[in-house]
Amino acid sequence: xxxxxxxxxxxxxxxxxxxxxxxxxxxxxxxxxxxxxxxxxxxxxxxxxxxxxxxxxxxxxxxxx
Length: 65
Hints:
The chain is mostly helical. The chain has one domain (3-62): Orthogonal Bundle (434 Repressor (Amino-terminal Domain)), CATH 1.10.260. It contains 5 helices and no strands. It has helices at residues 3-13, 18-25, 29-36, 44-53, 58-62. The model has no long low-confidence stretch (mean pLDDT 90).
């Protein structure tokens, strides 16, 4: 599963909207959408925040299946 798709699936399971997660991360919804759609790579600090918000480890987030 691609990184962005994995983020989307987990985000939906956690009942978070793109808007809510973008707000928590301190980025625009458009920037978040680009990350989720694979058009932009998240920074290391964004990856850490994303994993914290989604209640998963950083390793689980970036592990490709």
